[in-house]
């Protein structure tokens, strides 16, 4: 019986190839889109879940509350981890990380590689985290402070096929390091990424003490290190956070810091203050995938129902020959299963073609190979879900036809079934409208980000790091660059304005209350920096370059506000152990993602402690060539690396830009499948009302009247869908926008555009079949006995 049903299913599908083709194509498109989206979701949810200690690993965040404003930082002082392990029984192990953002030249027997973003880690790194050490001792990965561990790919680049262990590598023509271990390349779904690891003990050993802090392990003011704790099973993260807070406040008088612990598995999708940053995007993608799959299934149901009258005689004949309803349901479910399998096969082919483009858009490295158990399980689940959702209702409706009614030509689909089909159309277009509105809001927010004033000029400004003998001849570098007429300004600083990484809590000021305190970004700049970047001073003046500037400081508006300093010009402000006079207040500007609020920043003057050059140009290409020529004059070994500030800005919002493109693609797919479903229902309605149309034409109805008659009910359904979609999409996108500290609003123009677009596309879809029915010859319909 099973194989008999399959033969019947294939025969029926082949007999009506156009119907089968539309159905398979619609289902395949929906399945392919939903599986690709769910693979993306699955990858996002998998971050940091491969560590066997994962449930007990926590990241330490530092929180500061000042005048009701809360700031949360992902970095902590160096001592908090070691003291926590010493004094808190629940802390089983601690690992500190510190990224080295400088480019380092690796030299092995004349083979040179310029590498960025190495990482200093504590010695328990490989026992706490599951990063397999292929060679070396995970219990003691760094025998000395001159040891280093390389990833497999980095070792291959540096040594080729040679045995890497024990090899000595010279860094920056100064320090020699011995390779003590090889670790497998870090998986893409890890928030910790590097290809070179150095011992954290080296940072401790080379710490430069000052008058206030004598060692890294006693420096409570430098919030520069990421701290991870491995807690005993069952330990309370909240209690450990309170204990860390108590330890710090006892060690540093007046410290206004409160520590919280964040699970390792939340670091990728949640911001440090617990906001659902990426998690909301995951939910939106999940719901969109389900919505597109439902739209495709509804499309199948509508098309199957539209063919019901053509299958009626078949059902009647089979019932009169003894087939019961159960057997008929089995036949139609088999037909649905065959259709679903064909759709999945086509969907897999579509995914194979689309995956390179999809990976480029999403920034992932996903695969749709059948030997991937995740792909097989996900595709199989979608297949079963599609079969059940799309197959059961048509099978039940078709098997319910009464033979006597079919034979007498009195077949009629009940009003209840008609209502259900209308509900399906409303559901389709509601989901499509929600997806379209969401896509438009994402696009509006990205345009808002790109056009919002950052508070400084980023156009035609590029930066490059000083290198080699440039440090000894900063004035010469400045003068040689300014000789080129394409370069309008040159400035120096010790950090990148687009990502100020340094932070400290070592601050004091006039009128500071005992419970006041917050983290501040210190940045060293020269006297031309503010002018080069068009940073606006709202009070006071800038640096002049005189020796007196060593005792001066400039704050941003947020610092003045958080400190509660009134009339700040002339008042004292202590940064680290240096007491300075406030000579200016710079207007707030964005130096990180607009998702985040503007943070406190302090500028001090320096012409020696700098490593980054800012070049403003009216002819960028020529200016870059001049800078490269100058670079090669002072650096014979290092390649010239530079970056434009506007390009760095775009990198900050790469994920949002990818999301926008993906949503545009999936919204087009959703509306196309919905229009197919609408086409099916229009076909069904026109065939059901063909005699009515013919009679109206005989009585004098015009084509326009017939078109209006057939279209108005569908227009009403689409309007209902839009009314349902509007509040749902507004609520969802308003919550998504709340993840940005600065954002646009969900404007009424978005809803107007969506409504007009959906109505227009729906009308164009209907018009083909409606006009065809209106132009049909009434004599043929009235002569027909159907």
Automatic annotation (TrEMBL):
GO terms for molecular function: transmembrane transporter activity. The chain crosses the membrane at residues 20-41, 284-303, 337-358, 378-401, 422-443, 662-686, 714-732, 752-775. InterPro entries: ABC3_permease_C, MacB_PCD, Macrolide_Exporter_MacB. It is a multi-pass membrane protein. Residues 288-399, 665-775 form the ABC3 transporter permease C-terminal domain. This is ABC transporter permease. Keywords: Cell membrane, Membrane, Transmembrane, Transmembrane helix. Residues 21-246, 435-630 form the MacB-like periplasmic core domain. It is found in: Cell membrane. The lineage of its organism: Bacteria, Pseudomonadati, Bacteroidota, Cytophagia, Cytophagales. PANTHER family: ABC-TYPE MACROLIDE FAMILY EXPORT SYSTEM PERMEASE COMPONENT 2, MEMBRANE COMPONENT OF TRANSPORTER-RELATED. It comes from the Bacteria. Its main location: membrane. GO terms for cellular component: plasma membrane.
């Amino acid at each position: 019986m099973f194989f008999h049903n399959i033969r019947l299913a294939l025969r029926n599908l082949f007999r009506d190839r156009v119907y089968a083709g539309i159905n398979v194509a619609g289902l395949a498109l929906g399945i392919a889109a939903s599986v690709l989206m769910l693979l993306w979701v699955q990858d996002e949810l998998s971050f940091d879940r491969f560590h066997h200690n994962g449930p007990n690993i926590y990241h330490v965040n530092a929180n500061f509350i000042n005048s009701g404003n809360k700031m949360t930082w992902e970095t902590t002082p160096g001592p908090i981890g070691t003291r926590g392990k010493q004094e808190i029984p629940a802390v089983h192990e601690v690992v500190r990380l510190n990224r080295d953002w400088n480019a380092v030249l690796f030299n092995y027997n004349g083979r040179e590689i310029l590498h960025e973003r190495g990482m200093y880690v504590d010695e328990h790194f490989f026992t706490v985290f599951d990063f397999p050490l292929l060679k070396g001792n995970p219990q003691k990965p760094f025998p000395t402070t001159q040891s280093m561990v390389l990833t497999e790919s980095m070792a291959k680049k540096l040594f080729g096929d040679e045995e890497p262990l024990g090899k000595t590598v010279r860094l920056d023509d100064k320090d020699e390091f011995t390779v003590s271990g090889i670790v497998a390349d870090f998986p893409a779904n890890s928030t910790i990424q590097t290809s070179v690891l150095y011992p954290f003990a080296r940072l401790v050993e080379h710490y430069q003490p000052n008058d206030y802090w004598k060692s890294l392990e006693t420096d409570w003011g430098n919030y520069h290190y990421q701290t991870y704790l491995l807690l005993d099973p069952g330990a309370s993260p909240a209690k450990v956070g309170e204990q860390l807070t108590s330890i710090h406040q006892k060690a540093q008088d007046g410290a206004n810091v409160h520590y919280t612990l964040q699970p390792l598995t939340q670091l990728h999708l949640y911001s440090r203050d617990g906001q659902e940053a990426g998690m909301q995007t995951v939910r939106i993608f999940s719901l969109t995938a389900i919505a597109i799959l439902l739209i495709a299934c509804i499309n199948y149901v509508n098309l199957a129902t539209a063919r019901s009258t053509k299958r009626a005689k078949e059902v009647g004949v089979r019932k009169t020959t003894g087939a019961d309803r159960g057997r008929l349901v089995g036949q139609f479910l088999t037909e649905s299963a065959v259709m679903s399998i064909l759709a999945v096969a086509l969907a897999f082919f579509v995914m194979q073609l689309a995956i390179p483009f999809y990976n480029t858009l999403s920034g992932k490295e996903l695969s749709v190979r059948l030997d991937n158990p995740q792909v097989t399980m996900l595709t199989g689940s979608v297949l079963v879900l599609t079969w059940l959702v799309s197959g059961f209702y048509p099978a039940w409706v078709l098997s319910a036809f009464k033979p006597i009614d079919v034979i007498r030509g009195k077949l009629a689909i009940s009003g209840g079934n008609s209502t259900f089909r209308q509900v399906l159309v409303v559901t389709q277009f509601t989901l499509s409208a929600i997806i379209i509105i969401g896509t438009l809001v994402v696009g509006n927010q990205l345009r808002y980000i790109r056009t919002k004033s950052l508070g400084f000029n980023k156009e035609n400004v590029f930066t490059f790091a000083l290198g080699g003998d440039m440090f000894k001849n900063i004035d010469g570098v400045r003068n040689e660059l300014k000789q080129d007429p394409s370069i309008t300004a040159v400035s120096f600083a010790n950090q990148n304005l687009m990502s100020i990484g340094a932070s400290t809590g070592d601050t004091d000021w006039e009128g500071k209350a005992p419970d006041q305190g917050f983290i501040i970004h210190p940045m060293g700049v020269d006297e031309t920096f503010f002018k080069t970047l068009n940073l606006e001073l709202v009070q006071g003046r800038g640096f002049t370059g005189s020796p007196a500037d060593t005792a001066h400081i400039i704050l941003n508006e947020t610092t003045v506000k958080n400190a509660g300093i009134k009339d700040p010009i002339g008042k004292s402000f202590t940064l680290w152990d240096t007491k300075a006079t406030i000579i200016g207040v710079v207007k707030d500007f964005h130096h990180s993602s607009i998702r985040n609020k503007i943070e406190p920043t302090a500028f001090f003057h320096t012409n020696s402690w700098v490593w980054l050059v800012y070049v403003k140009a009216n002819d960028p290409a020529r200016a870059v060539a001049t800078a490269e020529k100058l670079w090669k004059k002072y650096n014979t070994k290092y390649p010239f690396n530079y970056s434009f500030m506007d390009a760095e800005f775009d990198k900050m919002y790469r994920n949002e830009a990818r999301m926008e493109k993906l949503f545009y693609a999936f919204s087009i797919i959703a509306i196309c499948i919905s229009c197919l479903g609408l086409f099916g229902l229009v076909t069904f309605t026109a065939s059901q009302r063909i005699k009515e149309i013919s009679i109206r034409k005989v009585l004098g109805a015009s084509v326009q009247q017939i078109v209006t008659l057939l279209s108005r009910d569908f227009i009403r359904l689409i309007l209902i869908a839009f009314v349902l979609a509007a509040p749902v999409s507004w609520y969802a996108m308003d919550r998504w926008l709340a993840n940005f500290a600065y954002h646009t609003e969900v404007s009424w123009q978005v809803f107007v555009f969506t409504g007009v677009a959906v109505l227009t596309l729906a009308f164009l879809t209907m018009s083909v079949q409606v006009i065809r029915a209106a132009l049909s010859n009434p004599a043929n319909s009235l002569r027909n006995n159907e």
